[in-house]
Amino acid sequence: MKRIVTRSGRPLRGELYLPGDKSISHRALIFNGMASGEAKVEGLLRAKDVEATADCLRALGVGIREDGDSVIVTGCGGRLTPPSEDLYCGNSGTTMRLMAGVLASQPFEAVLDGDKHLRERPMGRIMKPLSEMGASFQGREGGEVAPLLIRGGGLTAGEYRSPVASAQVKSALILATLGAGGGTLRFSEPHRSRDHTERMLAAMQIDLAWEDDVLVVPSAQVAQATDVCVPADISSAAFFLVAATITPGSDLVLRGVGVNPSRTGILDALDSMGADIAVINAREVSGEPIADLHVRASELSGTELSGGMIPRMIDEIPVLAVAASFARGVTKVSDAAELRVKESDRIATTVTGLKQMGVDAQESPDGLVVRGGAVTGGRVHAAGDHRIAMSFAVAGCAATGETVVEDAENVATSFPEFATCLEEAMNGS
Ligand code: S3P
What we know:
Blueprint: E1 4-6, E2 13-16, H1 22-34, E3 38-42, H2 48-59, E4 63-67, E5 70-74, E6 87-88, H3 93-104, E7 109-113, H4 124-133, E8 136-139, H5 140-143, E9 145-151, E10 156-161, H6 167-178, E11 182-188, H7 196-203, E12 209-211, E13 214-218, E14 228-229, H8 234-246, E15 251-258, H9 265-272, E16 276-285, E17 288-296, E18 304-305, H10 317-325, E19 330-333, H11 346-356, E20 360-364, E21 367-371, E22 378-381, H12 386-395, E23 403-406, H13 418-426
Parallel strand pairs: 2-15, 3-14, 6-7, 10-11, 18-19, 22-23
Antiparallel strand pairs: 1-23, 3-5, 4-5, 7-9, 8-9, 11-13, 12-13, 15-17, 16-17, 19-21, 20-21
Helix pairs in contact: 1-2, 1-3, 1-7, 2-3, 3-4, 3-6, 4-6, 8-10, 8-12, 10-11, 10-12
The chain binds shikimate-3-phosphate.
């Protein structure tokens, strides 16, 4: 089992170019893979989750080949070929849910499977609406969990009110709608989830629009393959924003980070805690806002996070809880029950890890409460969850004693170079 060891005492300095955005990378492969024509993807995240998506698409007849640092995707024009084997999604919920949307529209049978963590995650949230559109599904535990057998084709799109704010649910339904024979998707959710799908598909000539809080997508559309330049992932940047904020003497610039407003909750949350982060050189690439983030160490105070803020920083809450441990006062996160069904139960794994590091932290059904104070370091188990592993490695940058994060091999799912980047920043001048 791979472990990460961190110790305090070295500020993070200099500048970093972090790897590509995971959400945008999956979408650049899937949407171009389903489109007509050929497109170049620059800055694609090279990590296990995105490789899983690429492997699934290749097994379905999509052309994906290396071209220097870029990748060329040759689309199937809306028609995939039946796979000869089960499609393996590894640890990646985005791969499984978006590919389920794609496969629901294809007139053949396919099986989606994943690792032991992914096999525990809820799939009813996509299977139910995709079944209502006309696809047929089987899964374990009444169709709730993978492996999933999908018999697609003959879909009709309609209205769907999602009970959860989820870009994966939204994207699965959009993909199924594009391959549906008739109808129009009218999709709504309790709070807006990340909108990379809408932005990228609009750039690919797909007709879709938000009418107030309803996303309207007509069926039977094939996208036009379009080059994508993937920005650095703000979810990966978050670890460095927090590490630099809590480590005295830090002064770090993160270049070319995606700052799509549906993802920048972490910037707003850290700002409300008193962090010193300047968003500079704002620009746009492939329809996505990007910027450089200049972060300096600073004192923090506690904050309260709830409501529409949560989907805007859903993957960053564990590392935000780490920041809260170093803050003056109490931080309270609520309306975040979705954290319980991520790569681990992140409310439980975050609170357990914080306690192991000497922090006063408590779970609530839909969130957590952290009282800032002494962070001693210690031995933490990441439960096979990449973001939990990286969050506690970050805590170790400013804890009083050594921090050992066990079970950290899944860092490779989203950010294989994490430890190298951290070391580089700690050696920076
Ligand atoms: C993602 C959406 C989010 C996020 C996940 C990536 C995506 O999940 O937590 O890491 O790329 O669409 P939900 O859609 O389940 O909220």
